[in-house]
Write a structure and sequence with these properties.
The protein contains twelve helices and twelve strands. By secondary structure, it is an alpha/beta fold. The chain folds into three domains: 44 residues, no CATH class; 128 residues, Rossmann fold; 129 residues, Rossmann fold (3-Layer(aba) Sandwich). The strands form two sheets. A six-stranded parallel beta sheet has the order 2-1-3-4-5-11, sandwiched between helices. Strands 7-6-8-9-10-12 form a six-stranded mixed beta sheet. Strand 6, helix 9 and strand 7 form a beta-alpha-beta unit. Helix 8 packs parallel to helix 9. 37% of the residues are buried.
């Protein structure tokens, strides 16, 4: 059955359209008996308000946008779970779009968010993002943006991220404590600030605490490339005694190569990772990792968004503290 209109309700009851509209909104000018009749008939006739018209009138949709590189990343999957949990409690729904690390797709998605009049946006920038103008247009339209995880390096934006320097430092310290001498460190795309921060902190910790350790660095950023690098490195005469993985996708590729080569962890090669927490537990032994929890990030980001929507001034940048989780891989 098609949803009835206000006009049909007014014709059936013999009252004006404006009276029907006020009755449905519990306006005090409408008599209790009239309000009761209108609501009972509206339920019978399956009336629903025109939400699109409401959006046009109020410029609000109670929809929060989420813009991420991809939902196949376990970190963003848990981030989305936290945002959806909080949104449900606060009466919002969530609209999710992926950039696939394309600045062009990112700009198209931002246009769709504007077109759908989202109330606020959570965004992790793509690898290709250099021009922040498309984001600024949304902010100029009174749509607050909370940047998460992959945040812009320029000031003036609300940012929520992991403490990347501390996460990398904790990982480096754990490796140094095991007296490893030849370390292969695999990082994400060098264009991203998260990669640069983790690289600087990781390598800086070794320079300060263990300058004699040999560091081999590569940028693999995905499963396939990570596997290829390990297969190549382990075929050489001088192999690394530990592999550091900057993220979960890199860890998966590394472990695929280790299994294919029938290597034992940690006897043949040790493994250390920064992770959202799930992937390291899928291996035996459990991978020692620094936990950077996407769910915690989502909770904190939502608090910042609520401050923005209440017209409060949030802190420009806040961090989620990482935690070292001991496994048996190091």
């Amino acid at each position: 059955m098609q949803h009835s209109t206000l006009k049909k309700l007014s014709e059936t009851l013999g009252i004006s359209v404006s009276t029907v509209a006020r009755a449905l909104k519990d306006h005090p000018d409408v008599a209790d008996e009239t309000r009761k009749k209108v609501k009972e008939l509206a339920e019978v006739m399956e009336y629903e308000p025109n939400y699109y018209a409401i959006k046009l009138r109020t410029r609000q949709s109670n929809v929060l946008g989420v813009l991420i590189p991809g939902i196949d990343n376990f970190f963003y999957d848990s981030f989305i779970a936290a945002v959806e949990d909080e949104a449900r409690v606060h009466g919002y729904s969530v609209m999710i779009m992926q950039t696939r690390d394309s600045a062009g797709v990112e700009e198209q998605n931002l246009h769709l968010f504007r077109k759908n009049m989202v109330t606020g946006l959570f965004a992790a920038i793509s690898i290709e993002t250099e021009d922040m103008t498309p984001f600024r247009k949304l902010i100029e339209n009174k749509v607050p943006i909370v940047f998460i995880d992959r945040v812009p390096e320029v000031p003036g934006f609300t940012k929520v991220s992991m403490s990347d320097e501390l996460a990398a430092r904790l990982a480096a310290q754990a490796i140094i404590a095991k007296k490893k001498k030849r370390v292969l460190a695999l990082f994400g795309h060098p264009h991203l600030s998260i990669s640069r921060k983790r690289f600087a902190s990781f390598t800086g910790t070794f320079r300060h605490l263990s300058p004699g350790t040999e560091l081999l660095v590569d940028y693999t950023e995905n499963i396939t490339e990570s596997k290829r690098v390990i297969m190549q490195m382990m075929s050489q005469a001088k192999t690394p005694d530990v592999v550091f993985c900057m993220g979960d996708l890199i860890l998966i590729g590394v472990m695929q190569a280790i299994h294919q080569l029938n290597l034992k962890v940690p006897e043949d090669i040790a493994v250390m990772s920064i992770s959202n927490g799930l992937i390291p537990t899928l291996y035996n032994p459990v991978i020692t990792h620094v936990e950077t929890n996407g769910y915690k990030l989502g909770k904190l980001a939502f608090k910042q968004m609520m401050r923005c929507l209440r017209n409060e001034t949030p802190e420009e940048e806040v961090f989620v503290e990482p935690v070292l989780i001991e496994g048996g891989s190091l």
